[in-house]
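Throughout this chapter, every protein is written as a compact record of paired, labelled lines. An example of such a record is reproduced below:
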Amino acid sequence: MDQAKIGRFVAECRKNKNLTQAQLAEKLNITDRAVSKWETGRAMPDSSIMLALCDVLSITVNDLLCGEVITVDNYNRETEKNLLEMIKQKEQADKRLLMLEIFIGITATVTLFVLLAVAVLVQMEAWLRFALIAVGFVIFLAGCFCALRIEQVAGYYECKACRHRYVPTYLAVNKAMHMGRKRYMKCPECGKKTWQKKVVSKE
């Protein structure tokens, strides 16, 4: 999606409605700075307010995502194009999240071992040694929680038996045995337990 084009379109529609950035922002319960970011192409409207924005500007979500009013003739083509673009953006975001998961895991683990090494090898009072060990474990557990949450929501798991792809619950991911990015889980589609691999795309 062309953010600059969408921004110009939002600005044009706002002016056609005789609204200032501040007035549009007030109607959407956001700041005029957010509206300014949209119109200059530095950000996209959040999905939670897209419908309200389109309602105020008297346009469709498809119009908004295309950066122009879509005619009936090419509506289906543009809808499909926007859908494919959104899927592509989600896949790219999921890939970035999975890289972040690795970074968080490594950082939390290294931090734990460094603090444990300092606590064991350096002369210090007992309370300080205990505090260092406690801080190390807190950071490690927080990192594990964040990494596991990313593992759950980024991309999909594919059942080896029926090839169904789905997003499991946090509890299911947490309880499952795993090897790398594969987890031994029950498929909600066929009900079989298999080693399911992590994939980025839905299809």
Remarks:
- The mean pLDDT is 89.
